[in-house]
Amino acid sequence: MRLQDQLMQQLTAAEPEMIKIRRHLHAHPEVSFHEKATAAYLKQFYQDLGLTTTDYGDGYGFVVDIDSGHPGPQLALRADFDALAIQEVNDLPFKSQTPNVMHACGHDGHTAYLMILARTLSNLKDQLHGRVRIIHQPAEEVSPGGAKSMLAAGVLDGIDHVLGLHVMSSMPTGSIGYHLNAAQTGRANFTVTFTGKGGHASMPHLSNDAIVAGSYFVTALQTVVSRRIDPFDTGSVTIGSFDGVGSFNAIKEQVQLKGDVRLMNEDTRQTLRDQIAQIADGVGATFGVQVDMNYDDNYPVLMNDAALTQQVIDSIRSADIPEITKIFDCGPQDPSEDFAYFAQAKPSSFIYAGCQTAPGENHPHHSPDFMMNEDCLLIAAKAMGSATLALLMVPED
C-alpha cells in the first residue's frame, strides 16, 4: 500500500479521537501566556506515545521531533493552543467550563488535528525521509506572541521550511484556501492618554476638556489612511476603546483611547506610526493637554513563500482527498498572525481550512458564538499530511 494511502487511512480512523481532543481543549481553555494545564495535557499525549517533548521559549511552548533516521529535509509543522478572554454563549455539551475564557478562534482545532497527524507520522516515520518538528505554540493572540521567544530559543535551528494552517469560519467546510506572498496583515496597537483639567460643566472656561481633545484625535485619525498612504496600498486605523466615562455635569480631566493598526506592506508601518504620533502631538498642542502614547509595533505582515506555497497546494491537489471539494486562492486575509515571525525566519507557508457550520451561517472568529464544523479537523490533517509527504520527498512505491 502506498504511503499516502496509509496516512489517509490512519487519519480517517482517528477522526473520532481528533474530535474528542478538540472538545476537551474547548471545554478547558486558557488565555495567552497562562496555558499551563493545556501544555501539560498535550505533553502527556506525547509521553504516552513514548515521544520526547522539549520546551522552547519563555512560555509553555514545546516541540516534538519525529526523525525518520534517513537523510532529508527538515520540516516544521506549527499549531497554536491559546484561547481568548471571551465568555462563550454557545449551548454545547463541551462548551467552555472556564468563565470569561473561550476557544473563539479555533486554536483547539489546530492543536487536535496536529496531535493526531504527529502520531500518524510517527507511526510511519521509517518510510519518511528527513525530520518533522511538531511545534506547539502558546500565546498567539496577545503581543508579543509566543512565536518570538520560541524563535529566540532556537526552535527553527536546522529547519528548512515551516507550515501552518488556520481554520476559517468564513470559508465553506471542504475548502482549502491559500495566497502567495503577502497573505495576512501586519499589526500594531497603541494607547493614547490625554490629560487636561477637570471642572464643573457650568464653568468650562476654568477647565480643559480631555474628551474634546480625544474626540478631535479620533476624527483627525481618519486622514491617516485616506491622505497619507498610497491608494494602492492597504491599511486601517481603528479606535476600539474610548474611556471617557464620567458624570453628566463634570468635565473630564483625562481620557484614554486604544487603537489598532493593520497594514499589508511593511514599508507603510513607519508612515502610519509617525502620522498617528504627529496627530496626537498636534491635538496636545492645539488643546493644551498632556499627551502620553504607548505604541506597540508587533506582528509583521505574513509573507508566504510563493514557491513553497505552490508546492504545498499542488501536493494537496495531487492527493485527491475526497473530503476536499475546493482549493482556491482566497486572497489576503485581514487578521494578523504571529506565524509571520516564523515566515520571516524560514521559507514558510500558511494555508486555511474552511470550517463554516452551514452555508450562510455566520459564527465569526473572536465572537462569543464562534463555532466550527468539526469535519474541518480531518481535512486539515489530511491536507497538511499530504504536504508533509511531498516536502519530505517521499518516493512513490
Strand content: 15-25%
Helix and strand content put the structural class at alpha/beta
The ordered string of helix (H) and strand (E) elements is: HHHEEEHEHEEEEEHEEEHEEHEHEH
- Give the averaged pLDDT, no decimals: 97
| Total beta-strand segments | 16
Largest sheet: 8 strands, mixed
Strand arrangement in the largest pleated sheet: 1-2-4-3-5-16-6-15
The shape is: elongated
Radius of gyration: 24 Å
Count helical runs: 10
Q: Give the low-pLDDT segments.
A: none
Helix content: 25-40%
Distance between the termini: 8 Å
Kindly describe this structure:
The protein has 397 residues and is of the alpha/beta class. The chain is built from ten helices and 16 strands. It has helices at 3-13, 15-27, 36-48, 107-123, 146-152, 210-228, 269-287, 306-319, 339-345, 375-391; strands at 53-55, 62-67, 74-80, 131-137, 161-168, 175-178, 181-184, 186-195, 199-200, 235-243, 250-251, 254-263, 290-297, 302-304, 326-329, 348-354. The longest helix is centred in the middle third of the chain and has 19 residues, at 210-228. It starts with a helix and ends in a 6-residue tail after the last helix. InterPro entries: Amidohydrolase, Bact_exopeptidase_dim_dom, Peptidase_M20, Peptidase_M20_dimer. Its cofactor is Mn(2+). Mn(2+) binds at residues 105, 107, 141, 166, 366.
In short:
With 397 residues, the protein is of the alpha/beta class. It has 10 helices and 16 strands.
